[in-house]
Amino acid sequence: MLTCYDIVTPFASGVNFTLVWERGGQPAWRSKTGAITRPIWEDMMDLSLTRRKFLSTVATFSAGAAVLCTIPALAADKITLRMSTPATETDSRTVALSTVFAPAIAEFAEYQPHYNASLFKQGTELEAIARGNLEMAITSAQELAAIFPEFSIFTAGYLHKDAEHQKKVFAAEFMQPLKQKVEDELGVKLLSVMYLGRRQLNLRTDKEIKTPADLAGVKLRMPGSEAWQFLGKALGASPVPMAFTEVYTGLQTGAIDAQDNPLPTNRDVKFYEVTKQIVLTSHLVDLNYIAFSKKVWDSLTAEQQAAVQKAADEAAESGRQKQLALEAELEQFFKDQGLKVYTPDIEAFRTHVQKQYLESDFSKSWPEGMVDQINAL
Ligand code: KDO
Q1: For 75-90, what is each residue's pLDDT tens digit?
Q2: Is 143's C-beta closer than 6 angstroms to any atom of ligand 1?
Q3: Same domain, yes or no: 87 and 196
Q4: Residue where one domain finishes, among candidates 53, 70, 87
Q5: pLDDT tens by residue, 4-60
Q6: Are residues 115 and 196 in the same domain?
Q7: Residue 274 placed within a domain
Q8: CA of 374 to the centre of ligand 1 (A)
Q9: Same domain, residue pair 92 and 171
Q10: 47 and 110 share one domain
Q11: Which of 193, 199, 244, 267 to mutate to test ligand 1, by most ligand atoms within 8 A of the CB atom?
């Protein structure tokens, strides 16, 4: 129990009460002797009293009574931010969150990461946040597209140019209504964009892949959602849905012939141990968003919100720089592991993939003129 301040209440003038906040409980009035305890809402008629309202109440009352309130005792009552992801704890994005994001907000929040989809299955995190069962996730445009079809624009192959372009798109004016919709309708705030990297094809077979036609019949694992499956098809392969955490075994047993992920991911989860080649298609400059519960966001003070936003942006930047550096050096690493690493006919892939997207139902949901706006950035 945290004892706070001596204040004179407007409800019991002349009587000196101590306002107490019980950890995980409710604020209450207590007499100097500790004899009377009654919930504050009996006085305030406010059943939805939050900690934030409690603080402002204290400020109001104390101003009237000219008694100083000190807040520090309440700082011990931190919020918990559970974050669920299929990624490992050594992934650049998760490292950035635990080493940059978490310490920056440690004063008022306890960051609690859960890796390898150990808390929520890949693709179910947004719903978990919406239901109040999770506070944070590293989500994808493909997952958002399953709820808001217009997000499929960011899942289209060969659209984003590079990491900087992703940042500009996320910060662009035209992005605002989309972010707002996710906030209003799902209760999820997209804080910042994280760079996952250029997705490359990674096969357990050694047949050379030069054009989309060479992928005919290749069982290419893609994550579960429709937008991901479409990308696999657009590349010319036969897409197979499979969770990220099952891919290594899928490649090892031959349940799938190939998977696609950026080079840093391929190294992080050791896909090179069970594959023979990496084809540098760079078919998707992939991103993730730092997703944050709107309900939790609304419970924070303006200063705390600013701190969370800043911490998220700094973590995203730190992760981005690490991924870029890794991408630059890993080609040699895979060659040293005995894999073939080569560039196919990129123009053939680009033309094939872009045509499929423009002719698809996905493109019908894209906001008018947005492809041009993205290309113009
Ligand atoms: C994957 O399942 O292949 C993928 O790369 C999809 C991404 O959106 C993201 O979920 C990622 O997995 C995980 O964070 C693991 O790196």
Answers
A1: 458 999 999 999 999 9
A2: no
A3: yes
A4: 70
A5: 333 433 333 333 445 554 334 445 555 444 443 444 433 333 333 444 444 444 444
A6: yes
A7: no
A8: 23
A9: yes
A10: no
A11: 244
In a domain, 330, yes or no: yes
Distance 193 CA to ligand 1 centre (A): 14
Confidence of residue 348 (pLDDT cuts 50, 70, 90): very high
Cα 86 to averaged position of ligand 1 atoms, centre (Å): 7
Does residue 184 sit in the same domain as residue 41?
no
Residue 272 has pLDDT above 50, yes or no: yes
pLDDT exceeds 90 at position 122: yes
**60-75 pLDDT, tens digit each:** 444 444 333 334 444 4
**Distance between alpha carbon 156 and the CA centroid of its chain, in Å?**
19
Overall number of domains in the chain: 2
What are the E-state strand segments in the chain? 2-8, 16-21, 27-31, 37-39, 79-84, 109-114, 136-139, 188-203, 219-222, 238-241, 258-261, 277-293, 340-342
Q: Residue 20 belongs to what domain range?
A: 3-70
Pocket test for ligand 1, best of 261, 268, 322, 326 (most atoms within 8 A of CB): 261
Section 172-181 average pLDDT: 97
Asked whether 185 and 211 are in contact (CB, 8 A), the reply is no
Name the residue among 66, 288, 263, 318 with its Cα closest to residue 195: 288
Rounded to two decimals, what is the model's pTM? 0.81
Of the three residues 25, 48, 70, the one that is the final residue of a domain is: 70
CATH number for the domain harbouring residue 170? 3.40.190.170
Distance CA 84, CA 161 (A): 28
User: 56 C-alpha vs ligand 1 centroid, how far in Å?
Assistant: 42
Percent of the chain with pLDDT over 90: 80
What number does the ligand 1 atom closest to the CA of 262 have? 5
Query: Does residue 254 sit within a domain?
Result: no
DSSP state, residue 360: S
239: in domain: no
Please name the residue whose Cα sits nearest to atom 15 of ligand 1.
87
CA of 244 to the centre of ligand 1 (A): 6
Whether 189 contacts 266, CB under 8 Å:
no
